[in-house]
Amino acid sequence: MGAVIQFFRGVAERAVPDIRLTRSRDGRTGQALFVFEEPDALAPESMGDITGMFLVDEEGELVTREVKARFVNGKATALECTFTWKNTEDFERFMRFAQRYAEGHDLGFSGNQGEEEGEPQGQERVSRKSSEP
User: Fold this and answer.
1) How many CB atoms are located within 10 Å of the residue 3 CB?
2) How far apart are CA 10 and CA 116, in angstroms?
3) Per-residue DSSP letters for 71-92?
């Protein structure tokens, strides 16, 4: 079984999110912000109320209830979800999920640890792999 993201149990979200990770200086706590542009979960034929984001893989399930809709001209166009970890074990578990999800969705991982101008320290990103050499 590959890693999937669900807003309705048993229904994998097809939209691939932009994911940004931010960690504390000691690396123990942090957050992952998922931004889904025009996800299936917001389609008129979707299954009802979104009660959370479920990150599912062969190890089990990670859950966050921090899910917000972004609106443009009165219409929901995106979902922003925040997954928070409070210790190293939770971070390592999240990263195992993220690695599986990335492998299954042609995503890459980039970390800058605050080295690039304009980026906060401890911020990393999971995004589509570039097709450029």
Assistant:
1) 20
2) 39
3) EETTEEEEEEEEEEE-SHHHHH
> What's the farthest any 2 CA atoms get from each other in the chain?
44
> Tell me, what's the pLDDT at 112?
58
Contact between residue 65 and residue 82 where contact means Cβ atoms under 8 Å apart: no
Question: Which phi and psi (to 5°) does residue 91 adopt?
Answer: -65, -45
Taking the model in full, what pTM does it have? 0.83
Superfamily of segment(s) 4-121? Photosystem II Psb28 (2.40.30.220)
User: What b/e readout covers 14-41, taking b as 16+ CB neighbours within 10 angstroms?
Assistant: ebbbbbbbebeeeeebbbbbbebeebbb
Token duo for residue 108: 């890459």
